[in-house]
Structures are given as structure tokens and as C-alpha cells.
């Protein structure tokens, strides 16, 4: 080959690199959606490596302040290059998450160089036997595990006075909109990081509000699926009866894209995923992203759920819902409401602490390597912590849980009461009034949805005078995700309220 030929080839390579970099610079990374990214991939205006590099840069700048990400995957760029090679090879890529960076909450197991600790120092260095069920599905879809999102330690099941978003590994996470505002938990980092554009999308988990509440507090969309719709295998547990894994994203459409990938049967979470898989619609959930999704939907408003201030803040939203064809059924009362509140406050707590001990012990025993094999071991480890903050917050919930001894008479009575109030309370109200969904300010509906394993979606609804975000939640009966998606997407498209946080929290 002549010297001129070699020079010409080198020049072409330089021009190609310059062209790719120029095209990447023209791509709007901030607030980008999965749809934007996939279009840019197809048009050769963006690579997965460039996308990952952008997020790694943003994490390096903002995470020391926000503390939303507990660990970054050291293999993220390698995985991005692999995704780019697959794109170039012309392989048939059926998943829209291919090449997309995803954050997963720190209680969701990844069999890689990342820790899985629930924010606890006790689990640093532990080795999980395999990827969590939802992580397997993400990897199969070609998604890139960008890192682990921080969380309230042990999903807030360590202490009743533990601040939302605090853990012994990283300290206190901040709300990206207003630093003094509650970032909420326990999927704190998943919500704050996505809100601050440190990741494309994220996964959170919920037992009683941990997806809906941080989504509400950080102006993002959170989907809490019907329990069993997504696998809990490999997730550090609180309760097999209430735990669920769901997406936290900036838009309803992105959340639905992620949901489509992570739902489905998992033999490691049997029989819950087998039973719930019957709810999955043929063709997936993306088909329910309808701009006119509010038309003819009957939405219930509980009389006691909206206070006078809430009514004022949400009144214009009620008008929008009506204008878009929804029928609002207000001043509703849940049958046997006193029993429902008793179940939420008392029966749920009785059941959860017993389930926490049993389910956590089972999880810890399966680890390949760990310094703690039981809840008792975790409590003992915590007692020798040198952190003053750690000692200040205590571990009263863990101590209470350790005193339980399985499902005895008290727990069976509590579980029976929960079953009854769900059937003759929430479910009866929904069916008698022929409601498609119940709506609530913020995540106020979360506890009601939690005790029955019902689904819910939170969508950004505004910002108060101080700039603190607030959302609106829609909840329904088991398997009602298609209807909830139509409602949430219809509301989002009618309002377009979400805005990115300031460069620095106020």
C-alpha cells in the first residue's frame, strides 16, 4: 500500500471520529428519552459509549453533592462498546433498551463488580449467587447497568427515625430541586439521579411507598407494579407479600419501556410471577401510551385524602382531567374505613416485621459470601459501628423484628384483617363505583395500595412556592396497569409539567 493511500485512510478515520463527536455534541443529552436515544442510534448520531460517557461525566460533577449513586459500574464503558458493536454488526435488536444505561437500586443484586448492600456496611464485600431476576431481563435486552442507586438503609427498615435517603455507606442524599426538601425514600437515589439527569432510567423497589413517594418528591414518574408482575428474586427483601420492583424515569413512556422489559415469569420467584403473568397484555404495555387515554375514565377522589390545601393545588388538574374526558367521582368513602386505617397502621406493621426477619434470613443464607447470615448478625454488626450518626439513628425496627418468631397467631390475625379490608374496603369501593382508578395528591395512596399488592403510578403535577416538586398518583386493582398507563400518559401529555432541577439545589 502506498504512503498516499495510508495517509488517505488515516485522514478518513480522523474525519470519521470528528464527525461522530460533532454529531454527539448536537444531540441533546439533558432530559433525553429512550425514543430520542434510539432514533439517534439508528441515525448514527449517537453511540452507547458517548451516552455512558456523558452520564459518567454528570455523575462525577453532581454526585458528590447529591449523593444519589452509591457505586458506578467499572465495566460500564466496556458494556457500552459491546452494545455499539452489536449495533454495527446489524444484529436484530428487538429491545428498545439496547445500549441504554440503567441505574438499579442498591438492594437489587448484580453478579458483577458492584456491591449489593441495601446501603449497609454489613453487606459490603458480600457476593450474590446470581443477578436478580429483573437484572437478567435487563441484560438480555442489552441494557447497560450503569451503577447502583443509593437508598434509605435497609429500605427504611432499620430504624423509625432514619432520614429518607440516608445510609451508612454514603450518608445523606439530597433533593436536586431544593436541598433542604425531603428527597424521600427508600428508592431515593433512583429518583434523585434520574431527576438530575445522571442516568437515562432507573429501577426502584417498593414495599409501602418507596417508588411512588420519591417519584413524587423529585418530579419523576414511578410505576409500582402489581406484586408479582416483576420478579423479586435477588432483591434484598422486606416482605414477599408486598415487595415489588418498578421503573423510575422522567417520562411515562420511558417508564413503560422499562416495565415491558422487566415483567414476566421467573422460576426463582414462583408462584408469584406465574400468577401475575396472567395480567400481562399480549403485545406489552407500550400500546397503552395513548394521548387520549383519559377519555371516559372514571377517577375516584376520596373525601378524606385531599385536604383544603391539596384541593387548591390540584383544582386546575381536576379541570384538565374533565376537559380530557375523564369522569371524576368525588367525596368517596372507603367502606369500613376505620378498619382500613387500623390495617394500614397496626396489622401491616405486625405482619411486616415478622416477614422481614424470615425473608431477610432466607436471602442472607443464599449469599455466596457474607459476614452476616441472619438479621441477628446484622444487629450485632451495627452495634460495633463507629459512626456517631449510625448510633444516633439506632436500629429499633430491626430489634423488634428479631423478637418475632415466624407467623404465629398474632400475625395470622393481622394478615386475615388485611385480606378482609382489601376485599371489603378498597376493592368494594372500586367495583361499586365502577372506577378505573383512584387518584390522590402526591403518594398519599401508597399505603392503601401496599397492603393489597395493588399497582400505582405517580406523575409530576407541579412545584410549590419554594420550588419543591409534587405529583399526582393513580392507583387501581391488581393487573390494572394498562388502564393506569392510559390515564397517567393522558395526564402527562395534557400538562407537560416536569422541568429539570437547577444546576445546584437551592
TrEMBL record:
Residues 1-24 form the signal peptide. The keyword Oxidoreductase does not apply. Keywords: Signal. Residues 51-443 form the Amidase domain. This is Amidase domain-containing protein.
